[in-house]
Task: structure prediction
Amino acid sequence: MQKAPITKYHPFPKIELSDRQWPNRIIDRAPLWCSVDLRDGNQALAIPMNIEEKLEMFKLLCDIGFKQIEVGFPSASDTEFEFTRHLINNDLIPNDVEIQVLVQAREHLIRRTFESIRGAKQVIVHLYNSTNPLQRRVTFGMNKEQIKSIAVKGTHLVKTLVPTVADTHVRYEYSPESFSDTELEYSLEVCEAVIDAWRPSEKEPIILNLPATVEMATPNIHADQIEWFCRHIKDRNKLIISLHTHNDRGTGIAATELALMAGADRIEGTLFGNGERTGNLDIVTVALNMYSQGIDPHLDFSRIRKVKKIYERCTRMLVHERHPYCGDLVFTAFSGSHQDAIKKGMEKMDSTPGSLWQVPYLAIDPEDIGSTYEAIIRINSQSGKGGVAFIMEQEFGLDLPKKMHPDFGAVVNKIADDESRELNALEIREVFNREYIERERPLSLKSYNICSDPDDHHHVNCQAEIIWCNKIITIEGNGNGPIAAFVSALDCAGLKNFRLIDFRQHAIAKGSAADAAAYIEIERIKDKILYWGAGIDANIELASLKALVSAYNRAYIKNESKT
Result:
């Protein structure tokens, strides 16, 4: 890289627009959308889609709700031509969908394009030629008048050929390619010459597409370009101003959104931003950005996983895990503080249909786009106590007491840290079972019997057989409930080394045969350290006793490991 002073590159000049209006505007409605997946996205693939794959993509785009779809560049190759004919000949184009075909401003290509669209109901013929000074000098060796003449002659030819497809409603689109790097005054001059040649009306407007073929500057500059153009172009009421941004600087989405605020009416782009170099505009992200602001995008991404699956199969490209809205990890929190906030937000959300979505860290409800809550919280060494508890409740119906969250969270995090990997829900449940449910040494409950104390109806008697250090012992005690009576029995046997602190229980599922879960916290008397235990059983009474045994054994084992 060149060191300062950098002479190899220079900043893009600012646009003289002292009274710019776009910064004070908002996006309050959806634009016209045009998918260019089958052309711009297709030509950028290492292995272009075959006809079967293009058909599958075309159907997907129609299902999503696109009303304008650029199906290809029919004059560029036989495959593109045959695909266009296949759609028309087999009546595969919905009545409310306009197909769009791209063509360079060259006579034989324009004529070939009109051959391809014969018999279609509605077609947008999209003609382009490059106008920027670098292309004028390096690629074409032409001056401004010669470049403008190409656009005008191409437009006249298209207009002349429209009657040859009498059964087809033809809409015209013109692109001064590389608008982003063309002098604004010259772009205006060329486009007005095209307008004069086409003679649009309010009823039949012309589409002027202003491509950021190469993203040259910050998004505000692009917005300035669009506002300047919209304010200076004649017959604005007879025009549809269209955007076609690329992502060379990584700000194509921002440039598009600001340009909509600057007065544009229409957007061309692709699913997930597939296109040459760093890609075209990502329509999925822009549409869902609008949705997150309460604007109906008129595109249906309620089954985003299906859209992604078809896209990946047809293009042989993968959507990044962190891609906005649709990546595998975008609704996932590993961070402990994020997990805690999400868990609390989900618990406090108003469940009334149509209620305002208010969950920290989640811009939209994952269910709106066909995702689930299952993958929101995922556990690794960076995760917190709340995330682990969320998994246990959502996946297994185990509502751990809040005071128990740090205890179990620390156990899970240590395993994830030691193994340097993420733990899935089943593994977390296995850890829970090993740590709490399967604790049977040194104490285990072999059998028990609880009956009312005949002398005191407020107390019960507990007789139990326990296995203590591999020996079967019979114990007995009384208390104001099964747990208290069992604790009394342990005390009478000289085995009570703790104080009962907390007890919680709940049904895991509805129904008389459902399991119950119990959680008990004890304090070890010698050092006042707290330990939690858990028990699960169809009998809630037995689940509670198992939870006490679990806590007792965890306290004993921890004590042994220290000695």
Q: What stands out?
A: The chain has 17 helices and 14 strands.
